[in-house]
Write a structure and sequence with these properties.
- This protein is mainly α.
- 74% of the residues lie in helices and 0% in strands.
- The relative contact order is 0.14.
Length: 185
């Protein structure tokens, strides 16, 4: 490609392709974190329930949920940020460069906007929020409550459990904050 053949439109299309590749990779990684979390939870609960297990092992669950939940959240936010950037920055610029106006102007990257216009989108986003909280926060908090009710009353472990509860509460707030519940583009 010579310098003369490089145009703003071509650069924007290359950027679009790269961002869609990154978005696809992040979606796959993010979605696999659900399975990693479920497997980790099964391991901690299984170790706790063995004949030689003890309820103190439940304190391993909140850090696992915190690390995997935070990683999930960061990737989910980047997926949304890429979509937002494509809708609000790249698509309008390409529309402008195409010169099409009025009714003849087909939306550039129409899917980026169309799937957000679905009337059931908000319901699905609320359900996804419930799933995210149920996957990363509820099991960790449940483990802490069980430990507080029936576990050993060691001061160091009680202190650790309170710190874990605060960390999980912080994760819950961030999951809610980044739930992308807005109706706008």
């Amino acid at each position: 490609m010579t310098d003369a053949s490089v145009t703003t439109g071509k650069l924007l299309l290359v950027e679009y392709e790269r961002l869609k590749d990154e978005q696809k990779t992040r979606i796959g990684f993010r979605d696999n974190l659900i399975y990693a979390t479920l497997g980790s939870m099964a391991g901690v609960v299984g170790a706790t329930l063995t004949p030689k297990g003890n309820l103190g092992l439940l304190l391993l669950l909140p850090p696992v949920c915190l690390v995997l939940g935070w990683t999930y959240l960061v990737n989910d936010e980047k997926v949304s940020a890429i979509g937002r950037y494509l809708r609000l920055m790249v698509a309008p610029k390409l529309s402008e460069l195409s010169g099409a106006t009025g009714d003849e102007a087909a939306p550039v990257f129409g899917w980026e906007v169309a799937h957000r216009s679905d009337p059931d989108r908000l319901i699905r986003k609320h359900l996804q929020l419930a799933v995210d909280l149920g996957t990363f926060c509820v099991p960790a908090l449940t483990a802490l409550v069980i430990y507080w009710v029936a576990g050993p009353r060691r001061g160091d472990l009680m202190t650790a459990s309170v710190v874990e509860a605060l960390a999980i509460a912080t994760l819950a707030v961030q999951i809610i904050r980044y739930a992308d519940l807005a109706r706008e583009r």
